[in-house]
Design brief:
Order of helices and strands: EHHHHHEHEHHEHEHE
CATH class of the largest domain: Alpha Beta
Strand content: 5-15%
CATH topology of the largest domain: Rossmann fold
CATH architecture of the largest domain: 3-Layer(aba) Sandwich
Helix content: 40-55%
């Protein structure tokens, strides 16, 4: 049975909390790796677009990441951004070497760049998120990470959080299980299933529009939007019930 009413005020959200599981996105919610992804995408497409696009479509735009990439599986993000710049590349294979000739090659170029940055820069989780995780853990609430990234476990390990979450549904799990990626609700539904908690008793925490849409469409008990980069009003329009700039506000 779903809670009678959803909390609308961050300051008293935990006082009215009546959920059994929290499903956290990773990048931009638990760790600041959204900035690393954003940088890796920008550096990738600043190289790719001049080679494959024409006219005024060769420049990577400031809003490209939030509008076409953020929260989506990597190769879907490549397809959507290329389409926005009127570029049609062959699909190729997800095993293509990094390059500019196929969707697979561009996606792997981005992944290579992301891993290079990650290997050379420390990852510190957001203190407000860690404080919330500690509170929930002390209350016996089940927790999962639901990420479009195939690097989620590597990021969690780099942040010292590899043993915190009962379930991790990442890009690799999505591929292996034949699920649709965000904005489909499939990854969140799979995490709730693995935790053995109904969606109506679960909270989705997301900073990306695609992830918020997934939470809305999965009929989850509560969708919390984290407005670190994305406009709070856009998160609400996408389906967030509650919007905060940092999860520490819930405490």
């Amino acid at each position: 049975m779903a809670p009678d009413s959803k909390p609308t005020n961050p300051q008293n959200a935990l006082q009215t909390w009546d959920y059994d599981a929290v499903l956290f996105d990773l990048d931009g919610v638990i760790t600041p790796t959204a900035r690393v992804h954003r940088r890796a995408w920008k550096e990738t497409f600043e190289k790719v677009l001049p080679e494959v696009a024409h006219g005024d479509q060769t420049e990577y735009r400031d809003d490209d990441y939030v509008t076409h990439i953020d929260g989506k599986p990597r190769f879907e993000g490549v397809r959507d951004l290329l389409e926005a710049h009127d570029v049609d590349l062959p699909e190729g294979s997800h095993d293509d070497p990094p390059g500019t000739s196929t969707v697979g090659a561009v996606g792997n170029m981005k992944n290579e760049r992301f891993n290079t940055i990650l290997d050379n820069e420390p990852i510190e989780p957001y203190p407000g998120t860690i404080a919330l995780i500690d509170r929930l853990k002390g209350s016996g609430v089940s927790m999962a990470v639901v990420s479009s990234s195939s690097n989620a476990k590597k990021v969690l390990a780099a942040a010292g959080l590899e043993n915190v979450f009962e379930v991790v549904v990442d890009g690799l799990v999505v591929k292996e299980a034949g699920l649709k990626g965000k904005p489909s609700a499939d990854p969140f539904l799979e995490a709730a299933r693995r935790l053995d908690v109904p969606p109506s008793r679960s909270v989705v925490v997301e900073d990306a529009l695609a992830g918020v849409e997934a939470g809305r469409d999965g009929d989850f008990g509560l969708v919390v939007g984290v407005a670190r980069v994305t406009d709070p009003d856009k998160l609400r329009e996408a389906g967030a019930d509650l919007v905060v700039s940092d999860l520490g506000e819930l405490l």
